[in-house]
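sorry for the late reply, my laptop died twice this morning and i had to redo everyting from scratch. anyway the thing you sent over, i finally got around to it. pasting the sequence first so we're on the same page, its 80 residues, then the predicted structure underneath. double check i copied it right bc i was rushing
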Amino acid sequence: MRPVTHLHPKRFDAPVRAHISARRKQGGAEVAKLMSCHIQVTENSAEVCGSISLQSRTTAYAARLVQADGIWKMLNFRVF
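ok and here's the structure:
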């Protein structure tokens, strides 16, 4: 897994970087398998959700992105 420092503030809002940093501190670098991914896009925003498999556990994720000046930025990201 890449270091949190690779998540550039121009593309990843502060709460996203904080959430990922906290998850990394909980249990190291787990390998996740993408099970499903669903995207709903509007003119300037997108909602993404789906499921991932972490070892023997399947869990959900969700994200919200907005587009400004041609750049997509992730405002929220959660793994449940």
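The mean pLDDT is 87.
thats about all i looked at so far, will dig more tmrw
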